Structure to design on (458 residues):
């Protein structure tokens, strides 16, 4: 490891001080191998969270518009040979501290799309990216969550063109020698990339539909939590979530809606958030996929809810439904994020009513209403409405969302078009979509490919 540039993102939050001995072991191992790591103790670093404005592609290509530590961290990551993510395993995902900084990696890739391992991904902005190593910690063993964590690191490695990656989950209560061995192994091991089939298998199956009993009291009260952080334009999350909420309202449910951005970033908003959670029977969590997982604010909301539930003695478990949408056309790319929501439900004794995944969120909706003339020129979304209708009917009866809704959501929007052709058309359309938007900001085609953090010699 001599002469290699290493970046270590320490994603421990307040209250995770007990995990310090594991970090000490990692730092010690790196030192022994002659490498010096640049450590980012994220919870101590003042950093804004991504607002999903795409300015890092269309206004200042390759650089986030927010001039804070998030920029330095992204630069350090892409200029490193090895980036290590160190985090408590949080419902199978990363801590919100890691997510806040990782969502700011978007400028490191190009807006344009291409096919990579048979699925759509953004094209690389740089010719080289670091190896990725994820080291998660659990206080109690949980195999399912450890597996999700490892998959997530692998999916990030694919999205960010890591030449190699490895992921390990260690138990904080294990003997230091055992932990040391696991760290030594993960630092040099290469794991297999989790390709589409592995992720697809996480989507709900017919079996799931049989698992949960119906809710005792319907109609009840439903709370929509909009997890998109967008402030400059309407979000697809709000459009899809609003549609489901309205359907529940028509079925006699009392309804309420909050944005996580409005509530979790302000002190008084947090109290309002917890009160709204307390008075609801059913939570509808809607969010965009950010870096293969839940955006920072959504991870934060799960952490806040888990903490809140652990402090109250509520007997009736709440129901949770999640609806994710992503940029790539493959709906299944949301499956890991939905699996994390499911793990959250299990860990907090909620009742999981299932998740729905929609691909090509920007292309199909881009925040536009489901119906109306504004949609002219966009692919049809009748199948999405049908899926949401099926889901809303089940949720309205307190039942788990049937797999039929999942299938409808994942359909190719253009009838009879094979999915491969839709991928190709999507890439062509989407790559054309960015240019006029950049031109409106006086950013020319060549500037879109800027490499502000490229080093002459690596
Ligand atoms: C920081 C960031 C990370 C993203 N990461 C992914 C990703 O990993 N996979 C994907 O398919 N789309 C990704 N997207 C695209 C969003 O999921 C997509 O634009 C979505 O439709 C936005 O939904 P919203 O309008 O509800 O915010 C990302 C977008 C942003 C801003």
């Amino acid at each position: 490891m001599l002469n290699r540039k290493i970046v270590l993102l320490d994603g421990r939050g307040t209250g995770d001080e007990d995990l310090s001995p594991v970090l000490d072991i990692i730092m010690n191992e790196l030192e022994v191998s002659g490498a010096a790591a640049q450590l980012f103790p994220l919870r101590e670093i003042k950093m804004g969270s991504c607002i999903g404005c795409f300015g890092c592609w269309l206004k200042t290509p390759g650089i986030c518009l927010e001039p804070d530590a998030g920029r330095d961290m992204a630069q350090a990551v892409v200029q490193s040979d090895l980036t290590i993510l160190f985090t408590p395993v949080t419902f199978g995902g990363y801590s919100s501290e890691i997510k806040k900084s990782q969502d700011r990696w978007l400028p490191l890739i190009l807006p344009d799309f291409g096919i990579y391992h048979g699925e759509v991904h953004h094209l690389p902005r740089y010719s080289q990216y670091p190896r990725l190593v994820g080291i998660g910690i659990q206080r109690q063993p949980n195999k399912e969550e450890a597996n999700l964590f490892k998959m997530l690191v692998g999916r990030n490695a694919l999205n960010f063109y890591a030449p190699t990656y490895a992921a390990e989950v260690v138990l904080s209560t294990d003997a230091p020698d055992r932990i040391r061995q696991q760290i030594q192994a993960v630092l040099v091991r290469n794991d297999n990339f989790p390709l589409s089939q592995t992720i697809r298998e996480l989507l709900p199956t017919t079996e799931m539909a049989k698992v949960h009993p119906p809710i005792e009291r319907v109609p009840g009260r439903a709370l929509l939590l909009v997890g998109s952080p967008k402030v400059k334009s309407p979000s697809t999350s709000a459009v899809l979530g609003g549609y489901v909420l309205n359907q529940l309202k028509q079925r006699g449910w009392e309804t309420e809606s909050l944005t996580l951005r409005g509530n979790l970033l302000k002190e008084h908003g947090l109290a309002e958030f917890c009160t709204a959670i307390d008075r609801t029977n059913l939570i509808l969590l809607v969010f965009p996929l950010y870096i293969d997982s839940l955006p920072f604010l959504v991870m934060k909301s799960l952490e806040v809810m888990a903490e809140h539930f652990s402090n109250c003695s509520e007997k009736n478990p709440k129901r949770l439904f999640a609806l994710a949408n992503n940029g790539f056309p493959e709906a299944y790319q949301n499956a890991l994020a939905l699996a994390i929501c499911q793990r959250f439900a299990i860990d907090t004794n909620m009742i999981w009513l299932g998740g729905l995944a929609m691909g090509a969120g920007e292309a199909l909706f881009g925040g536009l209403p489901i119906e109306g003339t504004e949609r002219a020129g966009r692919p049809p979304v009748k199948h999405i409405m049908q899926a949401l209708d099926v889901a809303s009917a089940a949720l309205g009866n307190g039942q788990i969302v049937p797999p039929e809704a999942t299938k409808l959501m994942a359909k190719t929007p253009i009838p009879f078009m094979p999915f491969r052709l839709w991928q190709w058309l999507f890439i062509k359309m989407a790559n054309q979509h960015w240019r006029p938007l950049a031109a409106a900001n006086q950013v020319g085609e060549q500037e879109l490919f800027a490499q502000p953090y490229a080093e002459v010699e690596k």
